[in-house]
Amino acid sequence: MKSKVVLIPVSTYEMSELYPAVKKGLELLGGPGYFIGKEERILLKPNLVRDAEVDRAVITHPAVMEAVAHCLAEEGFTRLSCGDSCGVGSPTKIMRNSGMTGRMEPYGVTAKEFAEAEPVQSEFGGQKRTFMLAKDVLEADALISISKMKTHALEHITGAVKNQYGCICGFHKAKGHTQYPNAESFARMLIHLNQYIRPRLYIMDGITAMEGNGPTSGDPVSMGVLLMSADPVALDSTFCHLVHLSPEYVPTNIHGQKMGLGTWQESEIEILTPEGAISMEEAVSRFGNKDFKVERSPSKGKGILGRIGFLRVFQKKPYIEQDICRKCGVCVESCPVEGKAVDFKNGRKEPPVYDYKKCIRCFCCQEMCPYKAVKVK
Predict the structure, then answer these.
(1) Strand, helix or coil at 112?
(2) Class of CATH domain 3-287
(3) What Rg value do the Cα atoms of the chain yield, rounded?
């Protein structure tokens, strides 16, 4: 059977259009009861990477969270909660500041802090891993992942698969970048993590997406779509097609299919819309954006140059734009490398300086910079 990906065109975050769009999307997949039981404890998992203005497209839009909560509550689902582990700050504070808490409270959704971690042992394909998962995740019976359509310096995009990294608590997320220091190993870890958590449903807020220097310092761009699927790889692959990025260039897609999480193959994906099923080609023609700013080259070198290591000269690396940097130190704090790959080597009156021999290219500094001062070249 083909993996179904629902594509609902949505032009605004106004509830008059968004709520019926979410409801229709769920209906096309069989309704929420197809994925979750009314007696189960349901955890809604948005992308709350850090505090930011809602219209910057850094976090999952609060209106999308409200619409999902509304649809679940009216169907009789009462054991609802919401949480994430942020890169910087408190998730409950981010939910309050963005208005997300106030939007969801009428539907009985409880905000979770993801403050306590518990180790879990997981083995998949002969690979054993320990994940420090939030206790709130482990106490839930089912998780619904509600991601944001954004670019990502390490994995090209961040979407359905990457969203579950927020189930790992606090500094353990930063530590993970040292354990899995490149796009391939990090992608395999993410697939394994999704295999363990097993979200029941994946929803992507692509009404306003982020292009360019994502996942926090890029620019908002209208895409006008809401995507849903039980297959996160197929959903992310559809995202790729819509922005004219080859899905096979995204490590989480490739390893997601190899490890059995889902499929990125166009021939194995069925696109459902309120008007009926359409081809991927038609979806791209009607809803795609060829000018979307995203890295469209492969994640690693191919052929003879890649094999002899010549392309290491052209590796992506973070750098700081001196005139934008406010010397806040967030990049230094977020660097997971022991001894710091970026630090105030010339004092706090000057911007931090990189030691590229230490840098593992995890781009945590770029992801966490609140002033868009860290770029990738």
Answers:
(1) strand
(2) alpha beta
(3) 20
Q: What angle separates helix 183-197 from helix 170-179, to the nearest 10 degrees?
A: 130
Residue 144 pairs in a beta bridge with 44, 201
Polymer length in residues for the chain: 377
Neighbours of 111 (CB within 10 A): 17
Q: How far apart are CA 259 and CA 327, in angstroms?
A: 42
Model confidence pTM above 0.85: yes
Instruction: List the structure tokens of 182.
Output: 């490149």
* DSSP string over 225-277: EEEEES-HHHHHHHHHHHTT--GGGSHHHHHHHHTTS----GGGEEEEETTEE
Q: Which two tokens stand for residue 245?
A: 């990025």
Cβ within 8 Å of residue 342, ≥6 positions away: 318, 320, 331, 332, 335, 352, 353, 354, 355, 359, 365
One pLDDT digit (tens) per residue for the chain, 377 residues: 999 999 999 999 999 999 999 999 999 999 999 999 999 999 999 999 999 999 999 999 999 999 999 999 999 999 999 999 998 889 999 999 999 999 999 999 999 999 999 999 999 888 899 999 999 999 999 999 999 999 999 999 999 999 999 999 987 888 888 899 899 999 999 999 999 999 999 999 999 999 999 999 999 999 999 999 999 999 999 999 999 999 999 999 999 999 999 999 999 999 999 999 999 999 999 999 999 999 998 865 443 444 444 444 567 899 999 999 999 999 999 999 999 999 999 999 999 999 999 999 999 999 999 999 999 98
Q: What is the DSSP letter of 55?
A: G
Question: CB under 8 Å to 374, separation ≥6 — which residues?
Answer: 217, 318, 319, 320, 321, 331, 365, 366
* Short-list 55, 222, 215, CA closest to 147: 215
Please report, for the chain, the start and end positions of each structural domain, with discontinuous segments joined by +: 3-287, 303-376
Q: What is the DSSP letter of 377?
A: -
| 193: helix, strand or coil | helix
Residues 9 and 17: their CA atoms lie apart, in Å, by 10
Q: Which CATH number fits domain 303-376: 3.40.630.20, 3.30.70.20, 3.40.50.10540, 3.90.550.10?
A: 3.30.70.20
